[in-house]
């Protein structure tokens, strides 16, 4: 299972370069376990979902702690046809899929519950795309049920789901949505946006 | 056919609020033809693909002309199950689909060719997701063929395709990819990132 993300970090500050360079240091503990490549648009992270989401969370929280309005945007993908399989992405191919949808929802809720707080409030939205499977809508409805019970659900918006809460729980919730639902070997993608310190309104959960 | 986008604009500047407020004025000519709703994460645009992409282009180019590093990120969707059909999104349901894939590629190339320059260079990347159809990969390969001949193709990256060139041609190319390929009534989404004025390297096409 090939899994990875194209990740961009946007600090709304004249010192965006400095904030990005500092935040990228938060990826250092992951460099031996993730493939990391950067260009002027995004940084590619390739590796298993737990490390991907931990790395994105640490990158984002480090930038957000400057107090500047920061946004992390990422295209996250697993099982994409045409991508080379890579040992670095090892994920148990049957993980969770011998379990019923109800059991996977329970496991996802338990994983979010067990996640440590970061102290960084965030607002987030994401779209989950499950490609080319007969169980497409059933898996999406199961995932929506999980999201509504995750503790960070805010509301449905057109084309996406909005979350709010501590960055720890928000990233954990999106991670669980990404890999517990849809075929274990299927092509599943996420379009995620995580925001902190927006001046527009308080980032409290509604 | 319900089509729309959740759009975010990120000016990497301490004056991001002023740049955004100025750029949003570029949406005024579209307000009678698009549904537009804003919160602290994104702006929802609902309407037919030609207006959606024209509005996003004008929003982005207005911000980029400040010379600041600006990024537009959007989740674009058509035919999403669960979204209400809305008269504002009227698109000819059979537009192009009585034509062969080869003819649609030609039409897409002609549409990009006919697009006026904006004078704003950009670098862009996007992912196209065609959900739940038997012709999934055939349509994607047809779309990739179009992209490679579009004049703004840069290269394939993991999980996405990179473009570079004038904002006019770049937005037109992504618009054509969005609505000429995949089932006319199918669920197709885009995850797009358009960047200008990055200090990292020149945004010339490679």
Automatic annotation (TrEMBL), chains A, B:
For this protein, the record's InterPro entries field holds: HMP/thiamine-bd, MTH1187/YkoF-like, Thiamin/HMP-bd_put_YkoF
Query: GO molecular function: any one?
Result: thiamine binding
Residue span(s) of domain Thiamin/hydroxymethyl pyrimidine-binding YkoF putative:
4-83, 123-200
The entry's thiamine-binding residues are 9, 43
Give the highest taxon in the source lineage.
Answer: Bacteria
* Name of protein: HMP/thiamine-binding protein
Q: Which species is listed as the source?
A: Rhizobium fabae
Q: Give the lineage.
A: Bacteria, Pseudomonadati, Pseudomonadota, Alphaproteobacteria, Hyphomicrobiales
